[in-house]
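Input set for joint prediction.
Command: fold jointly, output tokens.
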Amino acid sequence: MKTDHISYERYQRQIILKEFGEAGQLKLLQSKVLVVGAGGLGCPALQYLAAAGVGNIGIADDDVISLSNLHRQVLYSTFDIGFSKAEKAKQSLTRLNPGIHITAYNERLTTQNALAIIAPYDIVIDGTDNFASRYLVNDACVLLNKPLVYGAVSQFEGQVAVFNCKNKKGDIPVNYRDLFPQPPKDGEVLNCAESGVLGVLPGIIGTMQANETIKLIIGMGKALINSLLTYNAFNNRVYEVLLTALKETSLLIPATKAAFEQMDYDWLCSSTNRRFEIDGAGFDDLLNLTDVDIIDVREPGELPLPTGFNYTQIPLSQFKEKITTIKSDTVIVFCQSGKRSLQAAQWLFDTFGESKKIFSLQGGIPAWLKQV
Amino acid sequence: MKVNIILFGQLTDITGADTVTLENILDTDNLVSTLHKSYPAFIHSKYVIAVDKKVISENTPLLNNCTVALLPPFSGG
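tokens >
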């Protein structure tokens, strides 16, 4: 790209930074960045990358916009509910900066498409919201030798790191599996839908991911290579730890494209048996039984409260302690999304085995109420 | 031998505080087993251990007044 293609006025405030300059702006315009997940982290990252003039941006997300996204996914408006995130993000960013090229991938990254989608890009930003996708993106980036700018949030805290990227000292690049070699099992860690997240937090962490990406492209400053930064929005605590590559990590990551395509990341990240799940109709049938315990495992105060049948409340946080108080031969557990209740069902099975019939309401109580 | 422990994420729900001080801890294995005894919920929790801001993967001796951070994985985005 020739210098005269730069819109000086648009980028003037950053070009005048001596560390940035015209050369930096040219590097940005020639760079290619893929953002996986256009949610709480992806939205602010995308906004700042587009505004700064990253010349080629890819957006991969198969999700549609919902009302509960809008407190943190600031690229979207109330009118966008029900539409594709990747498409709406592209539309919004094109309005922000028509001088850059944006590609929307309205699909979920899988072992079958990830390598082809990632390959043309220089840097990948992880803005996903589940462990299966995080391990998939990490392993694909290791395989393709692409720097990965990682970000993740929970409640009031966030983590940022730059993986798979050489530093100036020549240390072996670290990846996500050097930090957490194996995914947690279901129940060991809660996701956003279960644990909540302060809306502004992914805004801060996603913006930090954009900042790390811009520094890597331009080659300025000090990026979080081989280190993990944690930020706590509740008390403003910032804590940075150094990471080192582990010998065994390479054994966990598929070494070839063929091996990668054979991986099952959903299985790897889920130990909980889904055989306990019942749908709304199955749930209705079981409500008519006489010897049945129906248990809400949500925390106190979570809404909506169902009506029309009797149930008890045992929050998941106290479930293990109180598990022996459950007497009926048939137990149905429910929660907000169907994930916590699946964990409760697993614990019931671990405790009572085949002596009780155990069921978990798929999709949670909001889905059941909609059906009614 | 005093060890300062900093907890992150939902690990603070287990202890009810984001810092904990333990006495007579020799190394990280010893620290983990002591935590399991005092707070059994740690047995079912996933986290990495950083000793004086360096993530470790093997049993590591602890010096008096060192700081140990316990960092859980986050999945949210």
